Amino acid sequence: MYDTLLFLHVLAAFALAATVVIFSAIALGLAADSRVLAVGNVLWAVGGLGTLVFGIWRALLG
To answer: pTM of this prediction?
Structure first.
């Protein structure tokens, strides 16, 4: 169970890292349409919530 939670926690952290890449590219001048912003927003929400939930769950199982 702990290994599965660790995998999901790291996967959610990668979603956050992908969001940072997307928003950094937009901030540096990438011409992005609304779908790219929508994907970034979804990754931010899923990654943030997943990192917190799975991290706390891992800590409680500790």
So the answer is: 0.83
Q: Which residues of 14-26 are buried (b: 16+ CB within 10 A; e: fewer)?
A: ebeeebeebbeee
Show me where the domains of the chain are located.
2-61
Per-residue CA distances from 15 to 54, 55, 62 (Å): 13, 14, 24
Q: Compute the radius of gyration of the chain from its Cα atoms.
A: 14
In DSSP notation, 9-39 reads HHHHHHHHHHHHHHHHHHHTT----HHHHHH
The 10s digit of each residue's pLDDT in 13-53 is 999 999 999 999 999 988 888 999 999 999 999 999 999 99
